[in-house]
Amino acid sequence: MILDVNGIGLHWEETGEGEPLLWLHGGFGCGTDWRYIFKDAPAGYRLIAPDLRAHGQSIDPSGAFSFRQCARDVHALLEHLGIVSVKAIGLSGGGIVLLHMASSVPASISSMVVISAPPYFPEQARAAQRQMSPAALGEAGMARMRERHPGGELQLHQLFEIVHRMADDVEDVNFTLPMLSAITADTLIVFGDRDPLYPVSLACELRSAIPRSYLWVVPNGGHGPVFGDAASLFSNTALSFLASKWQQSPA
Predict the structure, then answer these.
(1) What is the distance between the alpha carbons of residues 51 and 139, in angstroms, rounded to a whole number?
(2) Distance in angstroms (rounded) separating the CA atoms of residues 139 and 144
(3) How far is the CA of 26 from the CAs of 32, 91, 142, 188, 223, in angstroms?
(4) pTM of whole model > 0.90?
(5) Contact 92, 33 (CB under 8 A)
(6) What span, in angstroms and rounded, lies between the C-alpha atoms of 13 and 203?
């Protein structure tokens, strides 16, 4: 399905029935990446999975990408669907979008799981952004890119340009204490302790700033430590958290 909003065609898919659950993919990904974690839509949930602007089947002729603008896009999608408040999972860039959504319109996110999403980009992340290229991804990585993004080489070029611009942008990903303290959602922050982009200290900053937050540091976990062998544990943990089972335990 496509929604014309904010100058783009926003593509999204829905799977399952029940309570709405928003899934936001990471950079270079697409909405269907949830299948790498859940075999099917989690029981009791209507999984809503958009392709962020310029990604997947979402069309962005302007090329004016920002995570803040992605948050506006997704808010518009939720309004279109008649959803006032939603539970959500966001991976990396998708987690950054969730932080924008939850800090700008706190009531729109009731609870969320934010994976490998920093309050700001440290220098090692900016260095990686500057060096991102087809050669850096390799043949297998580029093959996965082409599978996810049907717009061909022009779309892939646009995505690489977006990442390169991030390296010098100090406004879009710059979550201050007042912004984070405005978040009212129950928040599970998930970080790998060996993430090459974002040190665990950034996760601790988020945990200290977001009032109703919990921190899960995945041992020996890299960036996005929720795939492969870790998928089952993450799925069980995230769904338990979103079901408010953690809040039943004493602090």
Answers:
(1) 23
(2) 9
(3) 11, 5, 16, 17, 11
(4) yes
(5) no
(6) 30
Burial of 52 (0-12, 13-18, 19+ CB in 10 A): buried
Consecutive 10-residue averages of pLDDT for the chain (251 residues): 95 98 98 95 97 95 91 98 98 98 98 98 98 96 96 95 96 98 98 97 98 97 96 96 76 50
Instruction: Please state, in angstroms and rounded to a whole number, the distance separating the CA atoms of residues 161 and 181.
Output: 32
- Per the document, the length of the chain is 251
CA nearest to 2, candidates 73, 103, 98, 87: 73
Which CA distances in Å does 45 have to 11, 16, 142? 20, 6, 32
Domains annotated on the chain, with CATH: 2-238 (3.40.50.1820)
CB 57 within 8 A of CB 148: no
CA distance 216 to 116: 11
Q: Are 192 and 227 in contact (CB under 8 A)?
A: no
| Amino acid at site 24 | L
Instruction: For residue 106, count other CB atoms closer than 10 A to its CB.
Output: 14
